[in-house]
Amino acid sequence: MTVVHEESATGAEVPIRRIRVTVNGETKTAEVEPRLLLVHLLRRGLGLTGTHMGCDTTNCGACTVLVNGRPVKSCTMLAVQADGAEVQTVEGLSTPSELHPLQEGFKEEHGLQCGFCTPGMLMSAKALLEENPDPSEDEIRWALSGNLCRCTGYQNIVKAVQWAGRKMRGEQA
Amino acid sequence: MTADGNGSAFGSRIRKEDARFVRGLGKFVDDVVLPGMLHGAMLRSPMAHARIVSVDVSAALAHPRVKTVITGEMLAERGMAWMPTLSYDQQAVLATDKVRFQGQEVAFVVAEDRYAARDALELIDVEYEPLPAVVDAHQALAPDAPVIRDDRPGQQDNHIFDWESGDAQRVAEVFAEADVVVEQDMLYPRVHPAPLETCGIVADMDPVSGRLTVWSTAQAPHAHRSLYAQLTGIPEHRIRVIANDIGGGFGNKVGVYPGYVCAIVASMITQQPVKWIEDRAENLMSTAFARDYHMRGEIAARSDGTILGLRVRVLADHGAFNATAQPSRYPAGFFGVFTGSYDLQAAHCSVTGVYTNKAPGGVAYSCSFRVTEAVYLVERMVDLLACELDMDPAELRMRNLIRPEQFPYDTATGWRYDSGDYPRALAKLLDMAGYHDLRAEQAAKRERGELMGIGLSFFTEAVGAGPRKHLDMYGFGMADGAELRVHPSGTAVLRVSCMSQGQGHETTFAQLVANELGIGVDEVDVVQGDTDHTPFGVGTYGSRSIAVSGAAAVTVARKVREQARLIAAAMLEADPEDLEWGDGRWYVRGVEGAGHTLAEIARAAHADIDLPDGVDGQLAASTVYNPPNLTFPFGAYLCVVDVDPDTGQVTVRRFVAVDDCGVRINPMIVDGQIHRGLADGIGMALMEHIAFDADGNHLGGSFMDYLLPTALECPSWELGETVTPSPHHPVGAKGIGEAATVGSPAAVVNAVMDALRPCGVRHADMPLTPAAVWRAIQGRALRSDLAIR
Lengths: 173, 789
Fold this sequence. Notes:
The complex is a heterodimer of chains A (173) and B (789). By secondary structure, chain A is α+β, with helices and mostly antiparallel strands. Chain A has two domains: 17-92, Ubiquitin-like (UB roll); 101-169, DNA polymerase, domain 1, CATH 1.10.150.120.
């Protein structure tokens, strides 16, 4: 799989770097311009359009993915910086037969409306629960403060993360 | 619950939409990829007001990956340099003569991808001749103010319109009789809806068929199609607008933007699909802003607290083009509902609109056509009156609320409120919040010098435009179509003209139909947003979906159910008059449990049964619902804040909201809508502001400056409800989507002003940032120079 620019094209000579990235468990090779943002590699190069872009100043977090397990705003990382890294996106959360508890929690607690912030929220919340399986409401709000939502007023997102935490800890959701 | 349905489908806690969104499988406009698709980027003006001397695109055209560059001159040759707005003004698509606001569209580059397109923007050379900018609306009508709109024949100044409502004479009389009159200037600052997904389009002009297909962020896809037809000359039946999933709209995505038109023209020229997705800076600088109303309110009352009348003067800053998205005969939207929830003798308002060197807009951000401004005004004035009379603001409101027996109530400005039980909602709020305990706590804190505030807001919304007789958008009466088809196996497809941007229509509308037909919610699919596959209508904004399209969905379902009655009568060999509907079946009166379900009837309709006269071999119907009136949901809100006297930092400790939107189709979704609007209230009251400097430079162009609430600024909302059905809506439902955005800012501001009372602060304008609050405490409130003289 080859990516020259944001998508395959021919044209001006630009410096190209070959990178190897593992995305949702599958290793991909791509040829990219050094300036290509990771979010564009994911969205256009790999067709993983669940990761969204909501701003141009790294504030909104709609592009959040996990890079080597840590939540990263993929609009503020170059694709070349992900060379050799493990990247997880929202598409890798569920299997065809089973949703991740966070995805279930967001459905159960109405933690989404337009759905645009949801993938980034899910990835930030996943990082939180992996680090802190039983967070308090304040800890959840802090952990998600890098993710803007314009629809939900956040409360149901907090409840969704709590729901998922309970399920992951084996308690009654 | 309803006249016919039993409301059994009205309790769902699952949204159909979620399945794709939680998997990252939504389909938003920037997810659309077509073979050969090019990418557009917009060159924008760095100046607020300047003559264009020359535009040189030769270097950009020489870029190896650039396909074309579109200029205003090229558009002018096609008669497309200007486009009509929803307010019967015109707006420049690409500037030809002058630029009139910073961020205005000047040229459009089309390249192989978005990186190359952005590179090429740097290669365009525009020579500007700067002109003085009109930034302060109060200076717009000064005799020496530069005329912004010299493109308009006969336009000698920056005046757009004067509009008034109510009885000025009667107001003068009641003011003369009043014991007390309180006056206050206030600004509802310019803010922005800032949906998380910006605006964008993919335009695909097929040169062979002559068909134009457009994927875009359109809250009103049918209106967009009509405008494109008018602008391009492509016949309407060959234009298809598709709004797939939209990442929030909030009124930002009602109108047509220059970028959409440029992408369409670019696709015509290149004969390839063209995508244009704006970035956040472009969204904040150039798309529909909200508010920007400079208001002077006067309230008259007796010394016992009986409110007699209200008088308001407004100076409305509309920016450089009047592109306000509102019913065309209402240049100030529904600001006329500024009498609020109170039984007044007289009211009058006058609104003057002016051009300034700023982006166009005005009606957006869940405003229900300026009801945000109306509610903010009246709720601030009532609080100021309470201060003047030294009365409890809850008691003052309770004393003046319209009583339940007065509905339908005709306001002093000519609106007919459909239904309400205001005292019940207010009493419930005070009880839920523990109002008297809060006041006791506040008194104790004041003794210790701590600043705690309790703010109330009691609001009446006006949502669900039509009726079409009075209300039109772009010449289209505000009625909405619905089509329903029941398949032979008894499942159904509903097609509606509204367009969700997260409000859950796919679920709620399925519930409405399922409830009428006695089938499962999962057995109804909802189609919206594709103009080839949906009936005509004017879209989703102004909380009109449930009120108008929802009523259309119920109406069309009942039509189908009546068809089913005739077919069931044929099946049962009975007189249709002898049939009754219940428990999801048509049965002969008195023989419950027998009869036929919709699935059985649908099968028969498509089979070999002899059909009665006038019945086709199908179960399908269409309708256009023209509402007899708006719906008037209402609510009682209370906000508790703590203010740090040393820093001016406001913390919202509690927010209690009692909403009444009549019958709730899906309580889970209703609550989510309210949560959103309450967060909007925190944002507008405390953080959000699109500001300009004296040269017209836009100072809110990114999320670094335009601050939106995060999970940290929002408390856990405490919600309550009462149910006062709308008497004219088929299931008694009223709109709800914008109610909390309309009602909550006043509650927050009233709370902060209540907290600052010991400091002698009477009023300070939003946003109440730490700096603004600190200045108010020092007696140096910001923007006091904006009073209307």
